[in-house]
Amino acid sequence: MSDSTAVLTGERAPALAMARRFRLGGGGAYFYLLPSLVFLALFTYYPIGFSAYLSLFRWNVLNPEKIFVGLENYLQLWREPLFWLVLRNNLFYALGTIPMTMALGLFLAVLVNQRLGAARSLYRVALFYPTMIPMVAAAMLWVWIFNPGIGLFNYYTAFLGIPRIEWLYDRHWALPAIIIMSIWKNFGYFMLIYLAALQGIPAELYEAASIEGAGAWRRFWRITFPLLTPATLFVFIVAIISSFQVFDQVFVMTQGGPADQTNVLTFYIYQHAFRFWDIGMGATLTTIFICLLLVLIMLIFRYAGRRVYYEAD
Amino acid sequence: MALRKRLAHLPTHLVLGSISLVAVTPYLWLLSTSLKFPKEVFTPTPRWIPWPVNFGNYAEVFDRAPFGVFLVNTVLVVTGILAVQLVTITLAAYVFARRTFRGQSLLFGLFLIQMMIPIHATFVPNFLTLRNLDLLNTRVAMMLPFFASGYGTFLLRQAFRQIPQDLEDAAVIDGCGGLRFLWHVLVPLARPTLVAFGLISLVSHWNDYLWPLIVTDTPDVRTLTIGLGMFVQQESGADWTLLMAATAFVTAPLMVIFLIFQRKFIESFMFSGLKG
Lengths: 313, 276
Fold this sequence. Notes:
The complex is a heterodimer. Chain A has helices at residues 2-11, 14-24, 28-54, 72-78, 81-112, 119-128, 135-145, 152-157, 174-198, 203-211, 216-227, 229-244, 248-253, 265-275, 279-303; strands at residues 57-58, 67-68. Chain A is mainly alpha-helical. Chain A has a single domain (80-307), classed as MetI-like (MetI-like fold), CATH 1.10.3720.10. Chain A has a two-stranded antiparallel ribbon. In chain A, helix 3 (28-54) packs across helix 15 and helix 5 runs parallel beside helix 9. Chain B is mainly α. Chain B folds into two domains: 2-59, no CATH class; 65-234, MetI-like fold (Orthogonal Bundle). In chain B, helix 4 (67-98) runs antiparallel to helix 11 (191-206). Classes of the chains: A mainly alpha, B mainly alpha. Chains A and B meet through helix 1, helix 2, helix 3, helix 5 and helix 6 of A and helix 2, helix 4, helix 5, helix 6 and helix 8 of B.
């Protein structure tokens, strides 16, 4: 971005360039950034460093004075089976939601993108509205739908030959229930992102392919899918970050239960910090959480970023 | 010919129609339950049409918890966040889009990092910060962490960069530089982006839960989402018609606005990823 400005500056009248550079001098730019930077520093950067620092201390209800313990908190987590169960649950949730939400989003975007007349905006509203509902409200609604006795879910799935399940009360089915609900809540947003990207693909490409005799299936895999890679990368990153943020559903639907089978990282942090008042451990988990997020995103950019075609920025 | 074309889309309509129906079912069930009498809920087969209709659930929800106060608090919090965000992101996006300065890419990177570090990853230290500032259990506490937006800055920077440099050069020569140019030229031209960001910000903070849950503990400052969560705990085991009425009420304001301005909403959310 700085390159283009520099090129432009060079092409223009030197006096103007001088004037512009003059106005830039004296830290003017930083003045404009200051309001944002104050809040970013206080609520994004400082917390990262502060939790890394606090993670080295024992600081809880029993020890109201901070005691330096080095990496003791990390070692304690390493030996804690529940910590590994929580990570497993997060992984399970990510694997359960991300591929399905992305596939559904893409599939529906391709369908909705066709010339469907007036029905099209009806479909868009019907498929997108779950995004507008607060997650807490959606979670509450699905507690009712998953009700084992008179819930809608068991009633209608019975027609498909699926046996009655206790869902949120069953240790094997509670997490899948949360996954089902989350897919319903989120696929509409991904559909819209794909829809936007689809509208950016020139129609001539499809016409040319049709003339060459490529069928719909081939056109999708040879044109649509490759040209959607930037959108897919964006959706994938959003999906990963938001899958790690899962909290509201767990809080409302199961409180991490039964037997911690739906306990996830955010809820585990919440428990330590605000139920057990163990701030040191909460900070340790927070630090692990942030590291996990950053490593994942770096990995995605390294391995997927290369294959993505971007328009020249 | 036209008919044949229409028939060709028939399978698409069938697939989309049935998936849409599945997607809409939960919300219709919510509304249906919220309008029933408690006894009507326990039927062996789902009864979709609530008859006789019982609007009393909504009134009773208001009697049992101050949902009116929750609504006012929510509106105050989301508009407060947005108002400050618009100032911070406009100023930051301006210099990122139109100026060159030392450390620009580094600083821009720092802004982008915020998109990857959600409040879910920082709520413990942020809680301690607010406790030290003695701001716990205030509306400001619910807003503070969101006043700067890396995402908004990014979106708006893209919009500002679309505006030709010649315009700024001409304005500078005429003596309309800096903040005046920003206010009188760039901001009006970037209106679609500002509206899109505004809607996304309003919706996402309307739906915030974790952060308000942690920093509030009395009903007078709580927002709708927290109010609903508390109501559910307070009435646990109570009848589903009441719980669904409360849930429906919490979703209602956004749903109504969404249905009226659905085009604008959908365009805004589409736009949010396009520039990502």
